Predict the structure.
Amino acid sequence: MELTVLKHNGEDTGRKVTLSDDIFGIEPNDHAIYLDVKQYLANQRQGTHKSKERAEIAGSTRKIKKQKGTGGARAGSIKSPVFRGGGRIFGPRPRNYSFKLNKKLKQLARRSALTYKAQDNSLSILENLSFDAPKTKSFISLLSSLSLTDKKSLIVLPEGNKNVYLSSRNLPKTKVITVDDVNTYELLHADVVVFCEGAVSKLENILAK
């Protein structure tokens, strides 16, 4: 599969980039995608939820009424879960939601996501991108030239560029990442994935290992 390299103004540079079929043309594995996205979302959870159980409630330990003769159920503590202000039964506790996935499965998931994007014609190649200074207006102009203003876009850089990142940080529908940070969730979440020219070969080297 070949894609045309675009200039920053959206015009054709005359150059083409050939995408590897081993990365962008495989038989997609939906279950691998599911597991990788599930792991990504699980890793975003802080897991700091906590409620107090009866042993952790501050309150008197006095027996609140006599054992027999009241006509009601026995009650030994105001901290019991059956009373207002008492502890919670089996409440949430801090926990770690992350789980392990094999490296080859994660690579298969990313290749599958890239294949889906290639099949949907949702991939673009842009000549190398850099700004002299952070300027959101310049980045908006770039998106407008590429007809991405109203679309969720993922811009993939070959290496970190602070000015490009800062220029796009305030735009809710655009995310800028480096090749090393490409993941299945971000690929599928975006309507269009834009690779800078030098990022394609670097990505293919990462996923071919």
Summary: The chain is about 35% helix and 15% strand. Helices lie at 21-24, 30-43, 103-119, 136-145, 162-168, 184-189, 197-207.
